[in-house]
Write a structure and sequence with these properties.
It is a single chain. The chain is of the alpha/beta class and about 325 residues long. It is built from twelve helices and nine strands. The protein has one domain: Alpha-Beta Complex (Spore Coat Polysaccharide Biosynthesis Protein SpsA, Chain A), CATH 3.90.550. GO terms for molecular function: alpha-1,6-mannosyltransferase activity.
């Protein structure tokens, strides 16, 4: 009797055939993917075009109202100048400020914590203090105690800082530190874009008379200048040499800097290392008098004390 044999198993498996059960699922999810892509696209368009909304708005910088137009800052250092001389300096500043509706800030060297830095750094922190106390001022003018305002008719915001006037005064493509610094002032800087006005004497930049426009940039500049790193470094002329350093090596500061003729805001008495004062100039300074002794500034200034009083009385 013959029985049917079972089918023999082959050693060759059948070729692999991919499952087709995923294709219906893919077909089912394709509309969802298209809908998500469309939603993403329209969301992107919405975000790009809603520039006027609060979500995407960039806060506008605060614009000072110009009240007062200028704050005149002077540091009173009784260790360098005698009391009688400092009193004439205060009178000089107060009378000039009253004439033009400006405010004054007289800082004492013991008023701020300098963390052991030389007292000359008081000038920088005093300017920061002026911006805090007078947030609506347009300009801060620092003029140190070694001099007088001689021409009361010159108005800072009109005769110097007005953009067209300032642009005519600016020295463009000019060495920042004389005589041959490779770092130069910007050649295309416009008057309305200037936030810092300086002068030079024969030794370099002068920090004895300078003007800062009130802005966020001004705070950045002064805080950079007052950085503990610079105050702890043994610069020969402390804050003045620190100023020369940051102006030359920080493009953000150089880009807002204008250097003007020294006699515009910073004339020197005869014999000092700078442009000599001439009658009619805005300011006269005695930058070396404190090095001689507290009485020297008073003696050097006597002639000019009478001159500025006559000039103020006639206006």
């Amino acid at each position: 009797m013959h029985f049917a044999l079972p089918p023999r198993k082959t050693s060759r498996p059948p070729p692999y055939l991919p499952r087709t059960s995923r294709l219906p699922g893919l077909r089912r999810t394709r509309p969802k993917l298209i809908a998500l892509a469309g939603l993403f696209f329209f969301t992107l368009i919405y975000l790009v075009t809603r520039s006027g909304s609060e979500w995407n708005a960039v806060p506008s910088p605060r614009v000072p109202k110009g009240n007062p137009p200028v704050v005149l800052v002077t540091v009173l250092d009784a260790s360098k100048y005698n009391g009688a001389y400092l009193e004439t300096v205060k009178q000089n500043r107060l009378q000039y400020a009253e004439k033009h509706g400006y405010k004054t800030l007289f800082a004492k060297i013991t008023e701020y914590d300098l963390a052991g830095s030389p007292f000359s750094w008081t000038a920088v922190v005093a300017m920061l203090d002026a911006l805090s106390k007078f947030p609506d001022t347009h300009y801060v003018w620092f003029l140190d105690a070694s001099g007088f305002i001689m021409n009361p008719n010159i108005k800072l915001e009109d005769d110097i800082m007005q953009p067209a006037k300032l642009e005519a005064l600016m020295k463009k493509d000019f060495p920042v530190v004389p005589p041959d610094s490779i770092i130069k002032t910007f050649s295309r800087l416009k008057g309305q874009d200037v936030d810092l006005v300086l002068t030079q004497d024969q030794e370099g930049l002068s920090s004895g008379s300078l003007i800062v426009r009130n802005s966020e940039w001004a705070r950045f500049f002064l805080e950079t200048w007052f950085n503990p790193l610079y105050r702890s470094y043994s610069f020969q002329k402390a804050e003045t040499h620190a100023l020369e350093h940051i102006v030359q090596w920080h493009p953000t500061i150089l880009s807002r800097l204008a250097i003007i003729d020294q006699r515009t805001i910073n004339s020197y008495i005869k014999g000092a290392e700078g442009d000599e004062y001439q009658e009619g100039d805005f300011v006269i300074r005695f930058p070396d008098c404190a090095l001689i002794g507290p009485q020297a500034c008073e003696s050097q200034s006597l002639v000019y004390l009478q001159a500025w009083r006559r000039a103020f009385a006639s206006t």
